[in-house]
Recover the amino acids of this structure.
């Protein structure tokens, strides 16, 4: 049985858009555009550039990036979503930032004000910066990417099974009104560096089927905006696939 994952299609499309469409070229070669694409719980075996399809997956667009760019076989990686993202964006071991484990709704722990981020370092160089998709740096407004060097953020704050807890059959049986107020997951957040924070609604099981399409569309819109402004961009796209629980549309199942 073969499952064609949305992530591979979406990530490949976004990468190819940046590589093949002149609209996203920066005018200053010393300040190249940066598009970072992250999946979730995807290993080397899921990319046919590494396995030649022996694992049952074919990813021709990503393979093209590998062929025309560089492919790596050795790496160091953190073992949780939060720690891995923290190491990437802060450039520090997660033991220094405290972002070592998955954050949950209602938690006070999260990204700290005095920790430098890659986005914050790029801002003085004239970059427009944004993050889209899964964040994982904390539940509070102070933890949002737009308080840590990003101009814009559109995405979710936790792993998917935390997002769908309100739909669990036991949720309403055991959660009191006060508990729901304190510990219910926030929806898909759209925030900006000027302090605006919009909640676009919960990330339900049904919405999860197309959440990556939402985040991809927002990423492309941001890159186009940066091009029109004649500014280099740093865009960090974080897809939800293939973390549990993965909810797929019928037309991408096979």
């Amino acid at each position: 049985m073969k499952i064609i994952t949305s992530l591979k299609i979406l990530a490949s499309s976004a990468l190819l858009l940046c590589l093949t469409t002149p609209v996203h070229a920066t005018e200053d070669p010393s300040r190249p555009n940066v598009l970072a694409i992250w999946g979730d719980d995807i290993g080397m075996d899921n990319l046919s550039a590494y396995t030649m399809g022996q694992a049952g997956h074919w990813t021709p667009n990503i393979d093209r990036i590998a062929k025309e760019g560089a492919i790596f076989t050795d790496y160091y990686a953190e073992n949780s979503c939060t720690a891995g993202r923290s190491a990437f964006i802060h450039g520090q071991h997660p033991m220094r930032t405290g972002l070592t484990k998955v954050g949950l709704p209602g938690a006070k722990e999260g990204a700290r004000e005095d920790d430098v981020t890659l986005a914050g370092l790029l801002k003085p160089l004239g970059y427009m910066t944004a993050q889209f998709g899964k964040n994982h740096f904390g539940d509070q407004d102070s933890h949002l990417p737009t308080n840590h060097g990003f101009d814009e953020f559109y995405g979710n704050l936790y792993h998917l099974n935390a997002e769908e807890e309100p739909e669990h059959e036991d949720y309403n049986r055991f959660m009191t009104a006060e508990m729901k107020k304190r510990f219910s997951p926030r929806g898909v957040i759209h925030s900006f560096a000027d302090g605006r924070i919009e909640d676009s609604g919960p990330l339900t099981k049904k919405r999860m089927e197309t959440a990556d399409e939402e985040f991809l569309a927002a990423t492309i819109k941001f890159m186009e905006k940066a091009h029109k402004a004649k500014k280099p961009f740093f865009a960090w796209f974080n897809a939800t696939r293939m973390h549990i629980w993965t909810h797929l549309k019928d037309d991408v199942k096979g």
About this structure: Confidence is low (pLDDT under 50) at residues 1-24. The longest strand covers residues 128-133. The chain has one domain: 6-252.
